[in-house]
Amino acid sequence: MSTKPAELNDLTLAEARDGLRAKAFSAREIAQAHIDAVARARALNAYLLETPERALAMADVADRKLAQGAARPLEGLPLGIKDLFCTHDVATTAGSRILEGFRPHYESTVSHNLWRDGAVMLGKLNLDEFAMGSSNETSAYGPVISPWRREGSEAPLVPGGSSGGSAAAVAARLCLGATATDTGGSIRQPAAFTGTVGIKPTYGRCSRWGIVAFASSLDQAGPIARTVRDAAILLASMAGHDPKDTTSADHPVPDYEAAVGRGVRGLTIGIPKEYRVAGMPAEIERLWQQGADWLRAAGAAVVEVSLPHTRYALPAYYIVAPAEASSNLARYDGVRYGLRVPGRDIVGMYEQTRAAGFGREVKRRIMIGTYVLSAGYYDAYYVRAQKIRTLIKRDFEEVYAGGVDAILTPATPSAAFGVGEKADADPVEMYLNDVFTVTVNMAGLPGIAVPAGLDRQGLPLGLQLIGRPFDEETLFAAGQVIEDAAGRVALPRAWWA
Amino acid sequence: MSVDAQTVRRIAHLARIAVGDDEVAPLQDELNAILSFVEQLGAVDVSGVEPMTSVTPMAMKSREDAITDGGYAREIVFNAPQTEDNYFLVPKVVE
């Protein structure tokens, strides 16, 4: 029997899985260790809701399964759930006042798949309101504070967004892994900001059923975890065809964990020259070069490629995503769930309810979406943006047709910034955080962010790998090469506890 | 293209969001910042390009035309702010 580590919540998900099966500790013990860690970390505001009783009840079931030798793939592993996933009889807010008090009578397919495989729910994680944001500062329930700090400073930093609670909780060892969602970079940018691994799979890989919708043609669920292997284990359970989502892909889910050790020998990695954006910090440029060198040293061929429409992805996104959001968020009308504010008549009730229930960023995006879809502007904005989306996708198709297996880019244009630091900037400055990630959503491709080093202030920086459609396996294989070469990031000590 | 104060009010009404007088000017600035950012799309030659309608090629599946769900009105209205006899209540719409 192996010895019990000092803190069970410091284990990786794979180590915890193996330890549970070896009976080194029980599911109840590791659930309790996490419940205690979560309770000590409220200063980070990562959890919107803690569900300790449910966690212990699920852990007891897991202990019985383990004792019977009938362990399911995630048996007894404590996870956090982004509060965009509907969870049966557990409040789901999407980070918005307009959904305060909402208790779904159903379970999202992705979270259902995790419980089916034996995982344990610790609670619901904070996020930007309706997943609209890059810093977790648009949450109606307050910002998440990153567990990371600049060297020699106590200034609070953002964990990124919109899956800021997920990324902070994983980095602070408040769960072994977490669910997240990504519409323009909301898994990969917070993963990069917190030294964690996040993968947005191919559009259609995970069911969107039961996930509060933002922009339906861009939204995808995926995991955030502390290692590439952990992310692979989680995605294998989350993914799969679901008849309840007509856009979910009817493809078998490969053994992602088996792909982790596959290496990159014989693969061709593309470096897109258009990602060398003006004003990119030298540190990011160096890290990118370093990543290419690591992959080359591991046996990959590295070639320069061109994705000529890259610069148009972000502006086109800021037409497509708000347009879809304005339509999706029409359902919050004070009639079926959540907040209701009385008005003069029914239209007044709608207008007062939505004015009181939505935050600034959400209102802004609904209004932009309403404008670009309105009579006289639809062709000039929306149809043009969808044509540009075709061109962006074609760029990738041509690169892949040329024999490239995956594309390497920086994950973000900078390291994490301070809470409130961008408050006075115009909204576009915040949007620029997603400049390297948003193309991937526009083209429906898989993308992974892997920690690759620290900047000179001691903050994590990540690299992104972009794959062919439904080839997440290559991303796990290449991601592991980067993780091995960079060395696992030393996560911050628990100053918050 | 940019929006004036009157257009901001019109969009807000279309979006069913009440905006106060003091909110119009800041919203106008923010919306115009976004619109000026997306202006650069006008430079792209999109002649002969089909607009994207599906990000991954897939045939829409159809299922058997059978009732597979339902019969739980109480759960449907469970989260509604105002209900009566399993109906949603709204302010009077027909005089």
Q: What's the short story on this structure?
A:
Chain A is an alpha/beta fold and 497 residues long. Chain A has 16 helices and 11 strands.
Structure, described:
The complex is a heterodimer of chains A (497) and B (95). By secondary structure, chain A is an alpha/beta fold. In chain A, strands 1-3-2-4-6-5-10-11-9-7-8 form an eleven-stranded mixed β-sheet, sandwiched between helices. The longest helix of chain B has 18 residues. The model of chain B has no long low-confidence stretch (mean pLDDT 93). Chain B is flat. The two termini of chain B are 41 Å apart. Chain B is mainly alpha-helical and 95 residues long. Chain B is 34% helix and 4% strand. Chains A and B meet through helix 10, helix 11, helix 12, helix 13 and helix 14 of A and helix 1 and helix 2 of B. Chain B: Its EC number is 6.3.5.-. Chain B: Pfam families: GatC. Chain B: This is Aspartyl/glutamyl-tRNA(Asn/Gln) amidotransferase subunit C. Chain B: Heterotrimer of A, B and C subunits.
Q: What share of the residues of chain A lie within helices?
A: 25-40%
Largest interface: A-B, 74 and 53 residues
Main pleated-sheet profile of chain A: 11 strands, mixed
- Tally of structural domains of chain A: 1
The main pleated sheet of chain B reads as:
2 strands, antiparallel
DSSP helix count of chain B? 3
Helix content of chain B: 25-40%
Instruction: Please tell me how large the radius of gyration of chain B is.
Output: 23 Å
CATH level-3 fold name of the domain at 5-41 in chain B: Histone, subunit A
Strands of the widest sheet of chain B, in order across it, are: 1-2
List unreliable stretches of 5+ residues of chain A: none
**How many individual helices of chain A?**
16
Describe the secondary structure blueprint for this structure.
The complex is a heterodimer of chains A (497) and B (95).
Chain A: H1 13-21, H2 27-40, E1 47-50, H3 52-67, E2 78-82, H4 109-116, E3 120-125, H5 164-171, E4 177-182, H6 188-194, E5 197-200, E6 220-225, H7 228-238, H8 256-260, E7 268-272, H9 282-297, E8 301-305, H10 313-328, H11 346-357, H12 360-372, H13 378-401, E9 406-410, H14 427-431, H15 438-442, E10 447-454, E11 460-467, H16 472-486
Parallel strand pairs in A: 2-3, 2-4, 7-8, 7-9
Antiparallel strand pairs in A: 1-3, 4-6, 5-6, 5-10, 9-11, 10-11
Chain B: H1 5-14, H2 21-38, H3 73-76, E1 83-84, E2 87-88
